Amino acid sequence: MNPFSSGTRLRDMIRAIRACKTAAEERAVVRKECAAIRAAINENDQDYRHRNLAKLMFIHMLGYPTHFGQMECLKLIASTGFPEKRIGYLGLMLLLDERQEVLMLVTNSLKQDLNHSNQYIVGLALCALGNISSAEMARDLAPDVERLLQFRDPNIRKKAALCSIRIIKKVPDLAENFMHPASSLLKEKHHGVLITGVQLCTDLCKVSSEALEYFRENCIEGLVKTLRDIANSPYSPEYDIAGITDPFLHIRLLKLLRILGQGDAGASDCMTDILAQVASRTESNKNAGNAILYECVETIMSIEDNGGLRVLAINILGRFLSNRDNNIRYVGLNMLMKAIMVDAKAVQRHRATILECVKDSDASIQKRALELVYLLVNESNVKPLTKELIEYLEVSNQEFKGDITAKICSLVEKFSPAKIWYIDQMLKVLSEAGNFVKDEVWHALIIVISNASDLHGYTVRALYRVFQASTEQESLVRVAVWCVGEYGDMLVNNVGMLDIEEPITVTESDAVDAMEVAIKCQRLGLTTKAMALIALFKLSSRFPSCSERIKDIIVQNKRSLVLELQQRSIEFSCILQKHHNIRSALVERMPILDEATFTGRKAGSLPTAVSASSIIPCNLPNGIAKPAAAPIGDLLDLSSDDAPPAPVSSGGDFLQDLLGVDLSPASAPSGTSQSPKTGTDVLLDLLSIGTLPPVQSSSSAIDILSSSHDNKAPVANLNGLASHSSLSANATSPASSAGMMDLLNGTGAITQKHEENGPAYPSLVAYESSTLRMTFNFSKQPGNPQTTFIQATFTNLSPNVYNGFLFQAAVPKFLQLHLDPASSNTLPASGNGSITQCLKVTNTQHGKIIRSSIDWKLVGDQSHYPSIILVVFEYFG
Amino acid sequence: MIHFVLLISRQGKVRLTKWYSPYSQKERTKVIRELSGLILTRGPKLCNFVEWRGLRVVYKRYASLYFCMCIDEDDNELEILEIIHHYVEVLDRYFGSVCELDLIYNFHKAYFILDELLIAGELQEPSKRTVARLVAAQDSLVETAKEQTSSITNIIAQVANTASL
After folding, report:
1. DSSP of A69-92, one letter per residue?
2. Which intervals hold domain AP complex mu/sigma subunit (chain B) (predicted)?
3. Count of CB atoms situated within 10 Å of the CB of B152
4. Once rounded to an integer, what is the mean pLDDT over residues A248-274?
5. pLDDT of B131
6. Rounded to 5 degrees, what angle do the CA atoms B95, B96, B98 make?
């Protein structure tokens, strides 16, 4: 066209892009075009500005950056010709959105165009304003739009009406200015204006109660009349869709009537006749008719009560549900969700159909139906509905299983009529979809089982049966393993047989087999295996005949690469080999878990693990420290562990805690037979008997300790881990732990309490004996109260030089420890020098820790030079 | 209200996007990617609604193109299907049995028609004839303007030629 111009036409560019075979080729073409367009922009080329912008829009749709073209839009809008403006506005709407500041620059052009003599240009400006106006623009241009609501051409009036909707949504204060012009639009004959006018009134009602009142008083009759006219109008080809005149107008009128009738009996009364007419006379064989019926039903449900109309509406929904068209069924379900609030009984009538919809092949419908079923369940129908859902669970596809499992579990928990039913249903769910079940769910199941003492035998047998059938579902395996560990004897002896049960014969070795399967199965996770180890350990005392085999299985795991399993297996085999006297007490059944604490905990009423576990255990007269609420707190710790590094390890802690719960009361008998010895030991920690006043260290502990001398670092680490995790699980009051330290070491452990935000931190002699002194200096950086710097100074008081001196520390999980290298590893004799080492302890817990205490333990025989010092820090909140 | 309109081809190529609610460029790309994954994989006999981020997406397939509109939860899904069909019919009338290629090469026309149909995410005109008439009137305005410019450029070119001679 222009002989002096360069560049390709829009059509040619699109063709070139479409001809590209690879993404790289396409990028090259686009890059070339963009370069040409940028050059044209720089030269301020006017003739091809609109063509360039059109190209940019196409490039934009392909997903390339086009921000450099934004100013071109403004220039085109500011030019005089219609073609330029048309492309300019299109580019504006496509390339920019209301949050870009460039948009403000266009306000002035818009204002001019809104007052332009060419009505098509006015239309362009209104369209752009309606689509991307920001609040500021809306405020600036509202008077012009308001004026245009009375423009002579109806096509401008309708655009102005929709533009007003955007304006009042952005600036609700402006609503009252639009109230009167909007109500005059309702009297229009032109469908476009009428439809947009009704829409404007609807949105006005949403943002302003004043407008709602105004329309209620002045417009209801007019609207009812308009709806009647349109519903009864003869065939008009211009607006006809599937034999209905202007369904869009129908729907909008019904929507506005709904808003006006809601909460106003008088207004609702005015519209009942026409609603009844629309509901009964509208053809329902085409989508358009159903769209109207759908809207009409919603209006009937929302306006003030009219029994007859509601029956009509629910019947329409019933028809929707049995429709073959998926869309219709979907909206039917959707509407029933709303209807259930109004008339639950009527919805219950359609229960069977709704259940069918849960099994639909369409995910959207399934989801809707499932949610509806969930709302429909109550005490009286929970049994059949759960049965249906569980049956469906078996055949449902994988993506849906998670949803449906969660819903079933929550229903069963909420409405369960009896414990046995709850357990039965949960077993079914677990065996179908155990892998989709959240941890809380199977924890809750264990608690329920533990509380149902008359069902222990029944449950363990049922679990054993399903476990035998399949080990695919991990959470089922976990519950089964736990139950076999706890109630294994009931499994073998058929204790507490119920009438409905079929007797089964399980020998002791069968039960052990099952546990072995769980430990050896590759598919199962660490938590499950660790649970199975504990179960075996427990069975060792329940089934004396199998104890040799159990020992073998446990020993096999001594070489496990997984620290958790290795540690457990070493500890357990130690107990099995050397502590027959305490073993049976160690592996006693768990005390009944407190349901109330659990549910309270789940609801978040107990804020942190610390608060639950720091309840000081009460000392019973016979010297057995019975942890009252603390173990349950520990057990529950898994659900709200504050900073679990990985799910697996938190599961491990759970087990540790579980074990701790069991073991702590059991350690008392041995305490009477053993005399206190110096040196704390792993076993003590394992047993969590920090609360016992007379504490002993048993021979096995010495064994472990001596082995730690042989190969120092790794085992010592293991020890550290053991004591650390059990200490974090076990809560002792500072005072009682100090008492224990005194007994253990005879050297005086110091428990230092200090206010966290106290001004000074006195230094502290953490340990002093005839051979070694350890001093701690504390400091904190201002503005960083979480972090405590500790400088440890070690002085050798003995006449021998300490070589290879190593200091180690362990902290609970919510603390972070950073250990700087020591100044030396040789400690000169007779106090002639010292080693210093810095530690940085950071408290990651957000809660306030008011006081802190330090427990420390010395590992090693003091008659030799101490090679390792193990310090455990514990903070109490 | 309609939050956005998307036209996606069966291959996942975007043919038209119109945003009535503010979405940043990044969000737009993400929305398109997410929705094409969701919609293009759905079977032919399933319902035309997809629940997505607390909103509903109503889509309908015409030949190789998916027309998608995203609406609020309490909007009338069936009506949106009618609006989509309404748009398709207007396109069909305008292009004369419209196909995907028409919409690729004349994408701006598709936008112009949509702008006569929807503003601020609401329907503005229930009559197909009125929409067609308005678009045609504006097209002819563009044509007239073009002719004028070309005649003026012709004159200038001629003048320039004679001057150089």
Report:
1. GHHHHHHHHHSSSHHHHHHHHHHH
2. 1-140
3. 10
4. 90
5. 94
6. 65
Give B-chain residues touching A239 at CB under 8 angstroms: 126-127
Q: Could you report the per-residue pLDDT of A747-800, keeping only the tens digit for each? A: 333 333 343 444 456 777 777 777 777 787 877 777 777 777 788 888 888 777
Other beta carbons less than 10 A from residue B73's beta carbon: 10
Residues 6+ apart with CB under 8 A from A298: A254, A258, A335, A338
Distance, in Å, from the CA atom of A530 to the CA atom of A38, rounded to the nearest integer, reads: 66
Nearest to A716 by CA among A618, A804, A824, A845: A804
Model confidence pLDDT, tens digit, residues A769-782: 777 777 878 777 77
Phi, psi of A528 (to 5 degrees): -65, -45
* Chain A residues lying within 8 Å of B130, measured CB to CB: 155, 192, 238
ipTM: 0.93
Contact between A874 and A812 under an 8 Å Cβ cutoff? The reply is: yes
What's the alpha-carbon Rg for chain A, to the nearest Å? 39
Phi, psi of A116 (to 5 degrees): -70, 155
What is the C-alpha separation between A470 and A711, in angstroms, rounded? Answer: 43
> How many angstroms separate the CA atoms of A573 and A557, rounded?
10
The number of CA neighbours under 13 Å toward the Cβ of A700 is 21
Chain B: closest CA distance from residue A40 (Å):
19
C-beta of residue A154 within 8 angstroms of C-beta of residue A192: yes
CA nearest to A426, candidates A475, A377, A496 = A475
Nearest to A192 among B25, B105, B130 (CB): B130
Question: What's the confidence (pLDDT) of residue A161?
Answer: 94
| d(CA B91, nearest CA chain A) in Å | 16
Cβ atoms of B127 and A191 within 8 Å: the answer is yes
State how far the Cα of A625 lies from the Cα of A564, in Å rounded to an integer: 27
The contacts of residue A95 (CB under 8 Å, 6+ apart) are A56, A57, A60, A66, A67, A69, A70, A73
- Both tokens of B123, joined, read 């329907």
- For residue A810, give the nearest of A692, A709, A728 by alpha carbon: A728
**Closest residue in B to A337 (Cα–Cα):** B74
Top pLDDT among A707 and B158 is at: B158
For residue A357, give both structure tokens: 């919809």
Minimum-distance CB partner of A287 among B82, B120, B142 = B82
Beta strand pairing call for A806-810 and A868-876 = parallel
The CA angle A829-A834-A839, to the nearest 5 degrees, is: 140
From the list A686, A695, A743, the residue with the least C-alpha distance to A719 is A686
Q: Residues A255-265: what's their mean pLDDT?
A: 91
